[in-house]
Amino acid sequence: MLKKFNKVILLLTLSDAFTWGAFIIIANLAGIYLSGKLGEDTVSFVGIGTSIYFLTRALFQMPIGYLTDKIENDKDEVVLLVLGILLMGLPYIFYPMITQSFQYYVLQFIFGLGVSLNLPNWRKLFALNLDKGKEGFQYGFYETILSISTALFSTIVGYIANLGDTYFDMSMRGVGIIMMTSSFLVLFIFKVKERKSNREDSTIIAVENVSK
């Protein structure tokens, strides 16, 4: 069955499972983790950091989407998606080194920039490569894999982080490494020669898939 399965959809699903599946538990633990680094004002620091993250997304996503729409093939989307995943994982490598709030803000900006490169390009590639008549199944497959990966990462990372501060640091760095490593899955898209996103009529296919 896997031989017949859309390889691009499979690769995009697996990359997201290791990127966002790992991120969700870390995002929930970030406030607890930072309280030991930044002290009593952690709640306000996290609030400001979250604002920086979303403002960064708001500023960069549309220009990035506009830029990639101007290029006919999908090489730009794949390369920028890889870069986005790397930038998303990088801040968690440095989380254990945080001693001041401004360091956290810088890492949030980097993460926001990574997400800005990730979301438009991942969604575009996914939409372009959906199989006509199988859209519901392939979206369902993606959501199922993402949910399972989130459950697994939540259990494993939560248990390890609870063992102590040293293990908490290891969990942060481990998640960052896992997220960054998942970028290699995206590169395998280049090996899928028959992918729809590399065709001249890919824009038409994307519109049809989104509108259904």
Describe the protein's architecture and organization.
The protein is mostly helical. It has one domain (7-211): MFS general substrate transporter like domains (Growth Hormone, Chain: A). It is built from eight helices and no strands. Helix 1 (7-38) packs antiparallel against helix 4 (101-129), helix 1 (7-38) runs parallel beside helix 5 (135-161) and helix 3 packs antiparallel against helix 4. The longest helix has 32 residues, at 7-38. It starts with 6 loop residues before the first helix and ends with a helix.
Helix and strand topology:
Elements: H1 7-38, H2 42-69, H3 75-94, H4 101-129, H5 135-161, H6 165-181, H7 183-187, H8 202-211
What labels describe this entry?
212 residues; Growth Hormone, Chain: A; 8 helices; mainly alpha
Instruction: Report the helical percentage.
Output: over 70%
CATH architecture: Up-down Bundle
* CATH class wording: Mainly Alpha
The DSSP helix count reads 8
Separation, N- and C-terminal Cα atoms: 25 Å
What's the mean pLDDT score? Answer: 87
What class would the helix/strand composition place it in? Answer: mainly alpha
User: How does the overall form come out from the CA principal axes?
Assistant: globular
Q: Which range does the strand content fall in? A: under 5%
**Poorly predicted parts:** 203-207
Number of domains: 1
The CATH homologous superfamily? MFS general substrate transporter like domains
